[in-house]
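Table S4 entry, Phosphatidylinositol N-acetylglucosaminyltransferase subunit A.
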Amino acid sequence: MVIIKASASSPSLTSVHDQTSKWDGEGGVICYGYLQSTKHSICMVSDFFYPNMGGVESHIYQLSQCLIEKGHKVVIATHAYGNRRGIRYLTNGLKVYYLPLQVMYNQSTATTCFHSLPLLRCVFVRERITVVHAHSSFSAMGHDALFHAKTMGLNTVFTDHSLFGFADLSSVLTNKLLTVTLCDTNHIICVSYTSKENTVLRAALDPDIVSVIPNAVDPTDFTPDPSRRDNNKITIVVVSRLVYRKGIDLLGGIIPELCAKYPDLCFLIGGEGPKRLVLEEVREKYQLHDRVRLLGALDHKDVRDVLVQGHIFLNTSLTEAFCMAIVEGASCGLQVVSTRVGGIPEVLPDELVTLCEPTVSSLCVGLEKVIAKQRAGKVPSPAAIHQQVKTLYTWRNVADRTEKVYDRACRQPVLPLPARLQRLRSHCGSVAGSIFSFVAVIDFLFLLFLQWLWPNDLTDVALDATGPGGCWQQSFRK
């Protein structure tokens, strides 16, 4: 690494962008005065990360591991979870900053757009970040990070994991926030073509800056084991957060109807959430304690052990951008029955999934068809299903494609403040554009104050655990 002495002069509009990251035109990246190789220094930012469990959390972790394997430096910034705060190291030296930010609702932080700037600036400067990659429209911390990163002159990438509507109040407000956040973001990633169409419409984006990169699963973590099944009965497995969006109310209608028709049918349900009460009431009302098992929250390492006990995997989601759960179920050799919503029809071949409308009657019909095939022995073996699924989605392929997005994003200019204010006003409407232009100016002035209070060149540079010359890899080799 070649070190270029950063200017110690007082910060100005020009110096803020000069001291942050840009492509040097010769295969390197200049970040805060430091010349780096084409290997990127990436900060993944989201409210959702381990020990919380879900598709976004798994996506961030697996993608980070594969990028580290390719030689990039990766750190993760999220909010503190209980006593888990400060800096933690995960597998292969993956560094995680658990920042002391207040959680507002459903593991998403409260946002004022300014209180997170000192903390995130410290992370970006200490780690010499060149690309800020935020995840999930639900993450207030992700929106804040993109806003601050653009103020600091860093290249930005955003991955949208969810689908939103256009009619209800919460969707209208979220879509306007997304329009503001993404109007000057360098590149956007969606996990399915349905998700891309949804995001382009919601945020009024140019489709050329939106790429589709699907989720994946590690096939070595989800292998079939038919010996774990009880072949004297048919077991339907559900692994999901027990929330309204996951269609748990539909599941509450399916259970008593199918249990009345099939005495040898049982349900194995993993997950936790506010809709657990619905399932407990159904189990109590119809006296199904011996046929409906509620396992509660599952660690990621335990999901496979639950899946292999079943014959059928059921997904009742009302909206999904991709749905990794059905891929995990199929990888374990289960027959998949799912609602036909969002990007789910794009995920698995027709012979591996039975798609139904998001109604109790349609899902019951689909499940009965699969149960009949299972009893007649007309379904492929779990090993055959696994062999087919493991070639469809791999994290290394996702990392390869994401790396190209980073290369493209780093070759694009980061808008200086005047051009950014003009983009906000022209893209976001006269009212919202003016409001957020004012917020952007305040954010910039706050950044100048922080740079005066604690200049970038006086900030300690963190020891690299990953990336080119990372100490973790060197220690491991020794």
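Residues 153 and 362 are 51 Å apart (CA to CA).
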